[in-house]
Amino acid sequence: MKRWLDKAETAIANHSDRLNAINIFPVADGDTGTNLYLTVRAAARALHTGPAVLGAAVPADAGQADVGAVLARAGRAAMEQARGNSGTLFSVFLCAAAEPLAGHTRLTSTLLAAALNRAQIRAWSALSDPVPGTMLSVMEAAARAAAAVDAGHNGNDSNHALGKALDAAVNGALKAVVSTESQLAALEAAHVVDAGGVGMLLILDCLRSAVLGEELQDELLDGLHGYDVQDPHIHADMPADDGVEVMCTISLSPLSAATLRQRLDEVGESVIMSQVDSMADAEGSYRWRVHVHVPDAAPAVALIRSLGEPSDISVSELALAREPEPAPVNSSGHER
Fold first, then answer.
1. What is the CA 93 to chain-centroid distance, rounded?
2. Closest CA to 167 of 189, 142, 190
3. CA distances (Å), 318 to each of 29, 103, 240, 293, 322, in order?
């Protein structure tokens, strides 16, 4: 799990510019690569510094050989620091994938299939209005492909069967990424694939690489529309989007959470709500990560505060500056 998320942090960092360049859905704000990178980074780094004990950090793997517990810790860290639609859905994916792995010390084909399936179901359900042709479709395709291979191996728990399931998951994800272009009108018009879907494909290939001890498949992204280095930043030519993205963490009872989701659906779009922890507190409340796009932040924040006391509130403009950044300069003052 550590190798996987370390590889994913590096891979998404290396590809963040191209992911940003083709990010036009649901909002053409060119930040999918950045948001996904920051969220993956939070997950990866949570596994290198364990929770504080009496004010001192303990090794992240101290006394722990439970794959599910390790991944759950990474998922919680990602959820608390999730950025944007893509980052939030990735953190939901991690938290859910950890559940079938709890109590196990190694990954098998059957566990992989169960984890991917749980993760894609949870991600679809986190969104109030899920849309095919996004990273949700990529998660689903990977899960279905892994399950089909696992079924053919009749519960074989060998590394060979696991490798076959991982190969299938990545190949299924790649096919789903290619299909995103024809599933969403905005992508078809711009002649690009979905940015979040490509990011999820990269993350799954990092899992394959970490488990099998092989290099990432450099040719995996060859031919994806809009993904060549020389392609322009597609999002820069799109109309600017009005409104803001509001995110926070809040403790709510299941009833209050359902109420908040319904009210946010009435005032905004891209509503995502998912539990940070699976255990309720003494009052029967759960911690939730909340994400919504709204025309104005104030009514949404007031709505959230009417049901509880949020923490880690962030408000980001959806319309980003469209001017290109200046080229970096070296110590002599010349552009490089």
1. 7
2. 142
3. 6, 41, 8, 8, 12
The answer for residues whose C-beta is within 8 angstroms of residue 60's C-beta and 6 or more apart is 2, 46, 47, 48, 49, 50, 70, 73
Angle at 6 between CA 160 and CA 155, to 5 degrees: 25
Q: Helix 84-101 and helix 32-46: axis angle, to 10°?
A: 30
H or E element: which one contains 290?
Answer: strand 286-294
Residue-wise pLDDT for 260-282, tens only, equals 999 999 999 989 998 887 777 88
Omega of the bond prior to 324 within 30 degrees of 0, cis? no
Contact status, residue 326 vs residue 313, Cβ threshold 8 Å: no
What is the spatial distance between Cα 176 and Cα 68, in angstroms, rounded to a whole number? 27
Q: What is the pTM of this model?
A: 0.84
Backbone angles phi, psi at 176, to 5 degrees: -65, -35
Is residue 17 helix, strand or coil?
helix
Residues 11-57 have pLDDT tens digits of 999 999 889 888 887 776 678 999 999 999 999 999 987 554 333 34
Radius of gyration of the chain (CA): 20
The b/e string for 126-143 (b: 16+ C-beta within 10 A; e otherwise) is bbbeeeebbbbbbbbbbb
Residue 182 parent element (H or E): helix 159-183
